[in-house]
């Protein structure tokens, strides 16, 4: 039997090291789109500029969607990386989506929030623009799986088909709407989107009431593992240029950043260090995740991480360039219709870390 897998991913049994995906760990530096970030002698250096860091004790509330499922955040918490930077981080309860994380920041329940860049931009387009993005913390892991029996070989042949969305308030639908639009498919008029729980996907695939499933890791990886005989990978964001794009981005309110910009530097340094730890300790990272999830075993998590881009962060110019790219793509969906200068807009909503 042939093993099914997302398009472009190597076979499950391949021995590719995790660190070889999308980032080169050389002397403590991570090569990211648009620049090099390193942590040397306790200093965070980005494009040869040294960010201001301090040892001031801080207590912060962080809103992060499904935090127990993120390997980098888990490492920062469990391996005392936050503590080494004198950060006492508490997680906001019951945050299951980027929108809920943004709401926690807006309501004052969180000092810092993490959400997909697409979700941040959708919120900004709706008129809420107080937040300031300062660090891209995780790469994209979107995947589109199609029902084998539907016989859909390419994205441009998705017209008239139905796609299940596993997390309705996520960036998944936005991301794949952009991909469909670029391939000549109108995601609003020519696709039927069906919000659906994970436990309902199997029956829907079998009876043909859905033709595809869209999501992001780890939930979409779980679909792949459960229903390998029924699905093929049609498109994903872990290969090609999108594998170098940041997805989860950290933000503070404009007021909080003005009052304590060094907090942004300390958090960026923590996530940079945590990402390096995950690359260097993939087996222990899997063990940490397995301790916090009931549905994915260690073997499944190990395979998933091997098929994801290595953790990197995006700062400053690199972050702004990626935000501009996302804005240009969202314009395909008639968002930001009156915005003429994406570069200026990205400079307004993204902030640089303070430097010495």
From TrEMBL:
InterPro entries on file = SsuA/THI5
Q: Which Pfam families match?
A: NMT1
Where exactly are the transmembrane stretches of this chain?
23-45
The UniProt record lists the keyword Magnesium: no
Question: Where's the SsuA/THI5-like domain?
Answer: 74-285
Provide this UniProt record's keywords sorted from A to Z. Membrane, Transmembrane, Transmembrane helix
Question: Its domain of life?
Answer: Bacteria
What name does UniProt use for this protein? ABC transporter substrate-binding protein
- Give the species: Ameyamaea chiangmaiensis
